[in-house]
Design a protein that fits this description.
about 230 residues, mainly alpha, Helix Hairpins, 6 helices, about 70% helix
Amino acid sequence: MTVAERVEIKGSLAQNSLLALRYNESGCCSENKKLVFRTVFVTYRYFHQYFANLAIHFVASIVIAAMFAFSRLARAARPAVSLPAARCVSYVAPPRVSADKSYRFGLKLDDVKPEDEDEAKALEQLKGVLSLRNASQHELNKAQVATAIETFQRFPGDTGSSEVQIAVLTQKILRSTTHAQGHKKDHHSRRGLIAMVEKRRKLLKYLRRKDLHKFREVVAALGLRFT
């Protein structure tokens, strides 16, 4: 191989190396440009979304504040409406059941006027049969509860109103208290008494929140102390 051929081969190799280097540089430059463009685009999208959300929240807060201000102004400009007068409620303590003058099933036999002597005799016999004089303590307790219901009911047959439930629980509490004083080791009845007192306290609290006037009347009629 001559010297000229060697020089020609070296020149061609150098030229190819230079072309390859230029190609790599151009490729790296294009990749860098793509990466920079992608980074700028993502950053732009992020800040665009961030500022858009910030603007939405700002506008929403302004709208809510304006609505609140308008509602306050409308409430202040609303004419005063007179409240209806409280319904007059006056309760009295339920009377104690008298065994001599009370009868079973809530009958009012003392108001019956016999027309002749035979009816008078039949009425006396009927009173003797239906009188609570010979009734058990269970029947006397039921009669006392019925009297309390009749005293505090809002309408005939009312057994679910707050004042009726309070009156019934008061009668049961009085009876259970008397029993507990005579039977100090009856822990089961004492737990039941505590549960009834707690239930009555909750009902009184509810009635005070709903109708203060009625609450005061019920407490005064039953002789309760509630703080």
